[in-house]
Amino acid sequence: MTKTLVYKFGGASVKDAPAVKNLAEIIRNRLRNNFVIVVSAMGKSTNQLEAILSLKLANQDFSQNSTILKGFHLAICSELFPEGHVIFPKVENYFIQLQHELNQPISKENYDEYYDRIIGFGELLSSRIVMEYLCLQNLLVLWQDARELICTDSDFRFARVDWGKTRKKCQAQLKPKLEQFPVLTQGFIGSDSKGRPTTLGREGSDFTAAILAASLDAGSVTIWKDVPGVLNADPKIFNDTTLFAELDYQQAAQMTFYGASVIHPKTIKPLANAGIPLFVKSFLHPDEAGTKIHSQAKADPLPTIILKKDQILVSLKVTDFTFIEEKHIHRVYEQLQALKLRVNMLQTSAISISIVIDSQLFKLEQLLSALKKDFEIRYNEGLELLTVLYPDMASFPQLLEGYQVYLEQSTRHTVQIVRRIN
After folding, report:
1. Degrees (nearest 5) of the Cα angle 39, 190, 280?
2. Where is the Aspartate/glutamate/uridylate kinase domain (predicted)?
3. What is the model's pLDDT at position 393?
């Protein structure tokens, strides 16, 4: 039997009506049975939903934001569909459901669960609009709610996948459909054992594609981006970038671990374990080769630059004149795990621990509150974490020109710098 192919289209590839039309052209000659399409929310819809949540939490009026978001989706529909098409009442209905959820109480204590109930509307809207447009173009696809397939725990906003249950559902529910029709579904979202919506972490649609591919024993996954493939730096920030024609799983995983945004960090492992190749290609130039990530690729020690913005440096100093011991590090990581905070960089000295973390709503104040009895704490916000893999030390000073350096760390093949522009 023909192996399943999985295509994932991110927010930029469905950001407006021309982008949706381009998506249809990409799959027009590729569509067949045993074909899964995973789509993200349109454009910056997730950011807009997060802004609505912030206003809701602050007891401020968010009605104008909701109206703008609704208008954005209806305007796209107006360019894609004839007047009176079924998509218009469907979009209206999603916003009625969204408003109903937004009428529910929110607090710091239930924020993560509330976030997951709200944020998935971006993917639901996007997938419904794209599915209806493909059908309008005589590209018949079935719509599938990913929450019926992706089973997770109840760790809201960072849910962990129940691989056994997810595979069973994909084999029992999705596979029979795929034998008859292509299927379109959402990235990023799942549900826990009680049927409550969960999410897989920000930008988690890539991970959804990998989960479905591994659960279906797929032949390949293709992620469609606004870049030619995997580059050695973000072309929006750095000049003279170089395309990797291929990467092995380990090197690709290392890049995502340090924050390379082209692929979600959890994507590589399930594909590597199953031996499923991953292609990263440009939706602007779909016939170009892009990057192939697979087990047979040779490691390429090309200097690779990864920049993470909006970072916080937290320095924790012991107050009882002892030296840093394992118990101190354990205490810090215990709180980080409780708050679902990932350490992007760690450095210890005789009397202090320094960690670099992403900025997240409420999390810093909760971390400080939990650790202030054990440590003297200082922190700096609004920083950047620059990571260079296989650095070319001759050109390295250029990366620091005009910046103040807060922390620096190097190993045999990696240099990390915490910096802020002067």
Report:
1. 35
2. 3-282
3. 72
